[in-house]
Amino acid sequence: MTKIGLEIHCQLTKLESKLFCNCKADYRSIPQNSNICPVCIGLPGSLPILNKKAVEKATMISLALGCQIPERISFFRKNYFYPDLPKGFQVTQYNAYGPTSIGSDGAVQIEGKEIKIRRIQLEEDPGRLVYEGSSEKTQITLVDYNRAGTALVEIVTEPDFENPRQVRIFLNVLADLVENLGVSDPYLEGAMRVDGNISVEKANRVEIKNVGSFRDIEKALHFEITRQQSLVERNIPVAAETRHWDEARKITVSSRSKEEEQDYRYLPEADIPIVRIAQNKVETLKAQMPESIVAKKERYVKKYGMPPQVGDVLSSDKFYSDLFEKAHTDTNAKEVANIITTDLMGFADTREKKMELKITPRHISDLADAILNNKITRNSGKLALQEMVKTGKSMSEIVSSLDLGNVSDMSSLEKIIDEIFKEEEKAVLEAKQNPDTVNYIVGKVMRKTKGKADPRTTLEIIQRKLSS
Amino acid sequence: MDIGISATEYLSLVRNGEISVEEFIAKTLDRIHVVEDKVHAYITVDEQNALNKARSIDKKIKAKERVGLFLGMPISIKDNICTSGIRTTCASKMLENFVAPYDATVVSRLKHEDVIVLGKVNLDEFAMGSTTEFSYFGPSRNPWNVEYVPGGSSGGSGVSVSALECMISLGSDTGGSVRSPASFCSVVGLKPTYGLVSRYGLVSYANSIEQIGPIARKVEDIALVMNVIAGHDSHDDTTVEKGNVDYVKDLDAGVKGKKIGLVQQMMEDGVDKEVSTATNNAISKLQDLGAECIPISLDSVEHSVAAYYTIASAEASSNLARYDNLRYGFDLGTEGYEFKAYVSKVRSSFGHEVTRRMLLGAFVLSAGYYGKYYLKAQKVRAMMKSQIDETFKKVDFLVAPTMPILPFKIGEKIDDPLTLYQLDINTIMANLTGIPAISVPFSISSFGLPIGIQIFANSFQEKSLLHAAYALQQTTHLPEVPL
């Protein structure tokens, strides 16, 4: 049986400052080495000051993943040399001498399967290496410390996954969860990084590192399963090793660097006193936590009668569920959910596209009301929505400028249908014999009215005329 | 003009207009020019800035503007405490050219009260040593006999105060580094309670046990400094808020009715005869002043040296890992090197003693040995702490010789690390348990070398510790420094 375990690094991007100093947590898109101070580049004599907000956010993640929160947490130094590590050690948490990390023993349900969480720890991110120069020989390594010292939460699962598909589902659930909690934006580049441990039956465990995206971890795991299985079939032992994901070639490669087997010489970090996590503080945090995705979905289905799939899709996307919460009224909730999940999500499925939307909750609410009151058809609604997201114009402006109002005047609709009957004599005859072909005529009417005719009324009139 | 006066005397002379700050600073600089060749206390002297600052303070005094508490008093700073504008070398090639972009909290607090920083003083490289012989810039020498070591690692601090090259110095004490030179140079040195004085800006050696501490010629001068440097600092999470304690007020409260314990394990075989005689004399003086003295046994002292060197080396191996010469350091370009090769090359520039401790530290932390060494050392530390807690239920103070032996000749023990480590046996306890301890100059040996007496108090009891130290100081009549 295949066994997979994960180590997920999730940046707390919603913090204002780094884990141990006042430098900005947002290190992206600024000049290199402009977001640094004596503390985060480890100048001699500097000392870390623990960001209490980071502890709170890490506690929230632990609670949301069903973890135990200890009464006291403490920090350790993980010692190793690397150019992106300015102090020669990373401040992290370590449970080998008793549980001191922010969370442990949690679990997440995915599709009826339980994935156990071994531990959750709060730690600092190192800086970033930038390579310059074309060939191996002229390659220059540059170091950018803007990221050094930003807060990370490492989530370690038990090897409970049986296949890469479960991994993908879990990671999506996790990304939605941290976004919903308001602790991280998982879609920012590098905000969520995954290492995987994988072994097929009778084979040694292999660690896969350096995977850039969720899609790639799934590919990397698939590759590893195939690779390990083919080795096992040929009675070649699978080496217990660390392999790196080669993004270009889409394969895993053995990383022979000795650095992977090194001894980290963990040591308690005496510069940060033990932090007491008071039980009432945990209760306060629990109360402050936003409604969970699971609870939200349940509410959508129960209260508004949404189909479970719609409730699922809507509740797991923070951006759209926030929009829903603001847009819906008691009478139009289901329609609002419909518009968001079937149309809007199709227009804007990426973070960039979401940011470009010129849409307000009012737009969606007005649109839903217009559809429910038969002022425009669903088809026209789609056109109106397209216009809204591009221009931000109001519902009434769009209806009049695009002339989307329903053809609700019965006599003019009858006149149009009469015209079509004359133009399409053959189709009319056919429809009289075979009622299934009536849709052809309905289609003609819709085309002529540019989709403004109410399809049900149109069908009624046509059927009446056919049988007369 | 006598530059050998105490800080308290200096303040009243300047306040009364009897001397100007500039005069005093100029005189002190003259003294530095005369004696530095013999004692080598300073690594860097900041002459011009000191004189400029002195003139500007004189102007302010004349104009009756607000002037800080210290009225331009000249001080020296151990060269492992960061000062903006003056390099902080840690007496290492590794930081030969390092100028910190900030002042340590203790330095900025003292500057705010208008001290004048004359310069940075010598130490064992990264504060690892007890003789100041392990300095990249060469050893400091004892002003009482320049053939002899001044103690360490804050040797430059002890020497500069003793040789009248400044009035007060800041040192750091990881295993006795303030008290040892205080004792060997016949000056006063205090190691405060862990967490009382900010370590922000102190270059870490063993960060769970070290503290910055003042060295001065008089106990009252130590109290003056503590009034300014003690207290919580938002840059150091390990500092504690203890309210506003005035260490100067009621300094002469005495020791009448106090209980004092003489630590038996610090008076045993290895202790020099003259030192133990001096200690017994100190005890009788304190008894004469109304204190009750009893013998106290602390058997954990036996294991303290082993525990200390395990913990301190472990922390050192981690604290010194940052010196890869990439972001700051000495002149050696990175071009053409692979990272690991570069790092091993630059790190071979550490001195032998630093290398020895980093290797020892890396070893005791490595997988499979952590429990055997590091964890065991922490257990000794915990045991010692609980013995100390119990002891201070019975007594107010503990007394012992600061150093078990008299100062020895430069070079005499330099190749014998184990003997040198053993010299810390009486001072280490305060670091491992966090309690405060002070060394008070008490007498001079038959050969003319200083002997200091150490007094310990319970955590955060610096105020009463200073009462005891002051009481003891008042019983002594010591000669002037023969330099």
Describe this structure in words.
The complex is a heterodimer of chains A (468) and B (483). The mean pLDDT of chain A is 89. With 468 residues, chain A is α+β, with helices and mostly antiparallel strands. Chain A has three domains: 3-283, no CATH class; 291-401, no CATH class; 410-467, Arc Repressor Mutant, subunit A, CATH 1.10.10. Chain A contains 16 helices and 15 strands. By secondary structure, chain B is α/β, with parallel strands linked by helices. Chain B folds into two domains: 7-261 and 395-473, Amidase signature (AS) enzymes; 301-380, no CATH class. Chain B has 15 helices and eleven strands. Chain B has an eleven-stranded mixed β-sheet, with helices on both faces. In chain B, helix 2 runs antiparallel to helix 3, helix 5 (155-162) runs parallel beside helix 6 (179-185) and helix 9 (301-319) packs across helix 11. The model of chain B has no long low-confidence stretch (mean pLDDT 96). Classes of the chains: A alpha+beta (468), B alpha/beta (483). At the A-B interface, strand 14 of A face helix 9, helix 10 and helix 12 of B.
List the helices and strands and how they pair.
The complex is a heterodimer of chains A (468) and B (483).
Chain A: E1 3-11, H1 52-64, E2 72-73, E3 76-79, E4 89-92, E5 103-110, E6 113-124, E7 128-132, E8 140-144, E9 151-157, H2 164-181, E10 192-199, E11 206-211, H3 214-233, E12 241-246, E13 251-254, E14 267-268, E15 275-276, H4 279-288, H5 293-304, H6 308-316, H7 318-327, H8 333-347, H9 351-356, H10 361-372, H11 378-391, H12 395-401, H13 410-423, H14 425-433, H15 438-448, H16 455-467
Parallel strand pairs in A: 11-12
Antiparallel strand pairs in A: 1-9, 1-10, 2-15, 3-4, 3-14, 5-6, 6-9, 7-8, 10-11, 12-13
Helix pairs in contact in A: 2-3, 5-6, 6-8, 7-10, 8-10, 10-11, 13-15, 15-16
Chain B: H1 7-15, H2 21-39, E1 42-45, H3 47-62, E2 74-78, H4 105-112, E3 116-121, H5 155-162, E4 168-173, H6 179-185, E5 188-191, E6 211-216, H7 219-229, E7 259-263, H8 273-288, E8 292-296, H9 301-319, H10 339-347, H11 352-365, H12 370-394, E9 397-401, H13 417-422, H14 428-433, E10 437-444, E11 450-457, H15 462-473
Parallel strand pairs in B: 2-3, 2-4, 7-8, 7-9
Antiparallel strand pairs in B: 1-3, 4-6, 5-6, 5-10, 9-11, 10-11
Helix pairs in contact in B: 2-3, 5-6, 7-15, 9-11, 9-12
